[in-house]
Write a structure and sequence with these properties.
Pfam families: FliP. It is a single chain. The protein is mainly α. 75% of the residues lie in helices and 0% in strands. The protein is built from 10 helices and no strands. It has helices at 2-15, 29-49, 53-67, 75-89, 91-115, 123-140, 144-153, 167-206, 214-228, 231-241. The longest helix is centred in the last third of the chain and has 40 residues, at 167-206.
């Protein structure tokens, strides 16, 4: 409802303005729909890149590969779990954005409609608060050397305050930092299951069962080990605890 109200309040001045309808009104309806869908896809991709989703989905994919269970759990289950874990990790950031950006914007828009004046808190102010909260989260989970890399590539001197770092530097640095962290966690997850594969292969070779695929025997052993140690709880705890709280 909040997003719908924002869209209505931002679109109403354009519709009630001067006789110039704008560039989008010159386009056909299918083209406008295509642009809207493209904007939504881009927004979704950006949301994935600036949240905890990347690390979570990669680590869960490593777990499935290490267990050698092919497509179990299915992709839909992993995506659903990743989305809800992302919402859990990002809850403080989203709550701060709702409290300091969305709510003041809605209240300012209502006051402006009642008094027929300019709002004292507009979209630019809301975007500044939103980007600041996202920057705080990303900087808390980004390695210093990754930030230094993109400062060097862009030939931009680092600001005196880390929060003043532009998004064009923070976002790619955050992504590669998340990828590195996810691969380190994936490596640690692989080690115990790799040992099981080596032990099973050695036993099968000692028994002379050369034609027996080791994965047929090692997969049940992996599943048994994963169940005994309550693997999903351990993975979830490790993932949530790996993010810095700011």
């Amino acid at each position: 409802m909040d997003l719908l109200f924002i869209a209505q309040t931002t679109a109403q001045p354009a519709m009630e303005g001067s006789s110039d309808p704008g560039i989008l009104s010159d386009l056909t309806a299918p083209m406008q729909i295509a642009l809207l869908l493209g904007a939504l896809s881009f927004a979704t991709a950006m949301l994935v890149c600036v949240t905890a989703f990347t690390r979570i989905i990669i680590v869960l994919s490593f777990v499935r590969r290490a267990l050698s269970t092919q497509e179990i759990p299915p992709n839909q289950v992993l995506l659903g779990l990743s989305i809800f874990l992302t919402m859990f990790v990002m809850a403080p950031t989203f709550e701060a954005i709702h409290r300091d950006a969305i709510t003041p914007l809605l209240e300012a828009s209502e006051r402006a409609q009642e008094t027929e004046s300019e709002p004292d808190f507009d979209l630019d102010d809301a975007w500044a608060v939103t980007s600041g909260e996202l920057k705080t989260f990303m900087l808390g989970n980004t390695r210093t050397e990754d930030l230094a890399l993109f400062f060097e590539l862009s030939e931009t001197p680092p600001p005196s305050h880390r929060v003043d770092t532009p998004l064009k530097i923070i976002v790619p640095a955050f992504i590669i930092s998340e990828l590195k962290t996810a691969f380190i966690m994936g490596f640690c997850i692989y080690i115990p299951f790799l040992l099981i594969d080596l032990v099973v292969s050695t036993i099968l070779m000692a028994l002379g069962m050369m034609m027996m695929p080791p994965v047929v025997v090692s997969t049940p052993c992996k599943l048994l080990l994963f169940i005994l140690v309550d693997g999903w709880q351990l993975i979830t705890r490790a993932l949530v605890s790996s993010f810095a709280t700011v």
